[in-house]
């Protein structure tokens, strides 16, 4: 039975790789009508995953907390997940800080910064981090679901789940629980159907990326700065996170192979929240993680486990402050390391979330934020890699928590 399942997974992975190559070729053709069709298909898949992501987060957290809230395991699961999240995020930021001091990017010409100002969103408002935190506190039970505010949804879902767990056992509570579990099973059936049709979506996503490369989006990069960001992501992905797994006696190659569908999906959607349905199904069906762990840990990690975001905030903030003439002493850099970790934990797993959060943090600091406009053309590539890293980190945290509970 296990061999048959492995053969099925291998065939699916080969199909996805084939779709990836086909999409890359189609994108290089530079045909206007084809690019329009590709963008249309990619948008449909993005919207469908966003459609399923919101109820997936809500139902997973409510059902899991309601079922486990009164048990000792709930506290253990959350404690282990939070510990691994903070450790991996702190490690990602530390890698970024080390690389920044090794590569030492130079300052940019003033003229280039002025050009960058024109590329920034014109409706940008001065938003403090307090405003960012305030925006996640819901004042309307429907609005967070309409806006797709992941953190607000998580707060509402956690509160409802804990309330259900504390309710006395009765027929009414049983009806609510059965309804939640039934909706969750229905949702996973819809996710299964969407994943079956996913090769078409991968063709579209890969073609979009290929078209961006052929359009020389990457040629406007900032050299050493981009090298620091991308190298940090690669080191975190292939060295730091596997070391965490090895320390817990988990095979990183096996784990990555099983979670590859979710990592690839994250690469193309640039949203860990939109990828969550695939991440949960892959963790349960391929990595064989217990449902009680995956359906609790992964929705939480989607909102607080942001390895790539922490490194981006730190490196970008240091780069802007350096160009603004501020002295980057070691105490200052260490302080910003912790600021970046805390900020990343409060970031929602949506496309360009780290970019706008960094922009908000830097807006009132008298630094040349025009550099953010120069970064914008290459941020698509950075965002893709960071999101894939975030989902891989979520998978690692989930695997480690599952191993801890098994032990």
Describe what you observe in this structure:
- With 407 residues, the chain is mostly helical.
- The protein is 81% helix and 0% strand.
- The protein is built from 17 helices and no strands.
- Helix 3 crosses helix 15, helix 14 (307-323) crosses helix 15 (330-345) and helix 14 (307-323) packs antiparallel against helix 17 (370-406).
Layout of strands and helices, then pairs:
Layout: H1 2-28, H2 32-68, H3 72-103, H4 110-119, H5 129-134, H6 143-147, H7 150-166, H8 171-196, H9 198-214, H10 224-247, H11 252-269, H12 272-285, H13 291-304, H14 307-323, H15 330-345, H16 353-363, H17 370-406
What's the end-to-end separation, in Å? Answer: 25 Å
The chain-level structural class is mainly alpha
Low-confidence stretches: 216-221
Name the shape in a single word.
globular
**Total count of strands:** 0
Query: Which oligomerization state do the chains in this entry correspond to?
Result: single chain
Order of helices and strands: HHHHHHHHHHHHHHHHH
Strand content: under 5%
- Let me know the largest β-sheet: none
Could you estimate the helical fraction of the residues in percent?
A: over 70%
What number is the mean pLDDT? Answer: 82
Rg over C-alpha atoms, rounded to the nearest angstrom: 21 Å
Number of helices: 17
